[in-house]
Design goal:
There is one protein chain. With 139 residues, this protein is mostly beta strands. The chain has one domain. It has one helix at residues 2-17; strands at residues 42-44, 47-54, 60-66, 70-73, 76-86, 95-102, 107-115, 129-137. A hairpin with a 2-residue loop joins strand 4 and strand 5 (76-86).
């Protein structure tokens, strides 16, 4: 009988834990930084510097593309739509709109923004090729 009562009490614990109420502390002030989107301004660059990797052969390709230009990395084609960077830091945090196609299959493999400082944030998912943004070109 005792094990049964103990088992029932243990089964009820998760439901009891969900009834927790969090109350604010009297006199506490929430400290939230006042950051507005209009404070972070970006500029459009003339082009982008990319790196391409063929995972099978190990070949690394450095590419410099202008706006609207297309280049090949192995069998895939990379087209630059736009490259932007923070106004106060041209060498860091560049991000580019890339369209990556496989012309043999007539499919779009990637169409979106890639961030130079975080290449894994929005990456090309391809079994053979990797492409990532190094920086935007400003002159």
């Amino acid at each position: 009988m005792r094990p049964l009562v103990l088992a029932l009490a243990l089964l009820a614990l998760p439901a009891w834990a969900q009834d927790t109420v969090v109350s604010p502390i009297d006199g506490a002030i929430a400290v939230i930084p006042d950051v507005r989107a209009d404070e972070v301004k970006s500029k459009t660059a003339d082009g982008v510097v990319l790196k391409g990797l063929d995972k099978v052969s190990g070949d690394v390709t450095d590419l410099t593309l202008g706006l609207g230009e297309t280049a090949k990395v192995g069998r895939i084609e990379v087209t630059l739509g736009e490259c932007r960077y923070p106004e106060d830091n041209p060498t860091g945090e560049g991000y580019a709109w890339l369209t990556i196609r496989d012309p043999g299959r007539e499919t779009v493999l990637f169409d979106g923004w890639m961030v130079a400082s975080s290449p894994a944030l929005n990456a090309l998912d391809h079994p053979r090729y990797d492409v990532w943004v190094m920086r935007c070109t400003t002159a």
